[in-house]
Amino acid sequence: MSRYFKAEIIQNLPLNSKTGLLTIKPSEHAPDPEPGQFYMLEVSDFRDPLLKRPFSVFRKTLDAIQFLYEVRGRGTLMLRSLRVGGVIDALGPLGNGYPKPDTESTPLLIAGGIGIASLFPLLESLPKRAHVFYGARNNEGLVLLNELKDLSCKLHISTDDGSMGPKGTVVDILNDFLSSQFSVPNSYLIYACGHKAMLEAVCRVALEKGIRGYISAEERMACGMGACLGCAIRVKSKEQRAKSRKQKAKYLNSTLSSQPLALSYKMVCKDGPVFQIGEIVW
Question: N or C: which end of the chain has fewer CB within 10 A?
């Protein structure tokens, strides 16, 4: 159940030149979020910028909630300037979360940049057999590595410029890993969060190899509850997905190309942000 509440800022920690970790303490008991859910935060007392901003939960403790953010525009720049002791308005938790894997699956978590925030709560609940593929433009973009290492997961790192780990994208190291394995596709379960191009590439790899999974979509949001329709994305109908499972070649073409499909839309904020791989039309 989501609701509005006020919260005190108890920490706003810069992690690098663009990324920060915001910790807030709700004024009263707040519902516990599921891994993958998000909150809408108001970044200014002056209604400028007017709209709240969506942020995935990085970590929830007994009395505090942490959010990882990246400065991308005026709103997040103002968020970075918020001081300890200040009060912020919030709405949440919102959206759906990641379904937990069955005991037989090996989870593969794929994160691009601050997409690691959405996946971190899930990773905390997973067994040590989980693999994490974490990529960024450069080594500065790979944040909270010590926290990841503390979870004893199998960590695979890459950067676009080669400043840490292999040079290339996170999808490159995912492909390399899958090519080196002999496990059947059904033994893996993918969870991914990052920018749109990365998610599309992850979906392509998963569909080509027959791997199940989920992605957390990123879209601009205004209300967080599906009322404004600002975060609508095109999806395949249940009938199309069922047909696609029987015809894999057509499935790949229709999901990842511009071929015409029957129109169907969902709201990222209300119906997502987590969607099955193969559900979104890119």
Answer: N
Count of CA atoms in the C-beta half-sphere (13 A) of 139: 5
Angle between helices 196-209 and 170-180 (to 10 degrees): 10
Instruction: Check if the beta carbon of residue 100 is closer than 8 Å to that of residue 166.
Output: no
Q: Residue 1 and residue 31: Cα distance in Å, rounded?
A: 7
The interaxial angle of helices 248-255 and 238-246, nearest 10 deg, is 140
Q: Are strands 232-234 and 131-136 parallel, antiparallel or unpaired?
A: unpaired
Does 15 lie in the same domain as 121? no
- Containing structural domain, residue 42: 3-94
Indicate left, alpha or beta for 145 from its phi (over 0: left) and psi (-120 to 50: alpha).
alpha
CA distance 235 to 179: 29
Residues 76, 129 share a domain: no
Query: Which of the two residues, 135 and 257, has the higher pLDDT score?
Result: 135
pTM: 0.89
Same domain, 10 and 137: no
Query: Which strand (E) or helix (H) includes residue 213?
Result: strand 212-216
Report the SS3 class of residue 26: strand
Residues contacting residue 209 through CB under 8 Å, at least 6 positions apart: 178, 185
Tens of pLDDT, residue by residue over 22-76, are 999 998 887 889 999 999 998 766 555 556 789 999 999 989 999 999 998 888 8
Lowest mean pLDDT among 45-59, 127-141, 249-263: 249-263
Give the Å distances, CA to CA, from 125 to 59, 101, 110, 129, 181.
Answer: 12, 10, 16, 12, 24
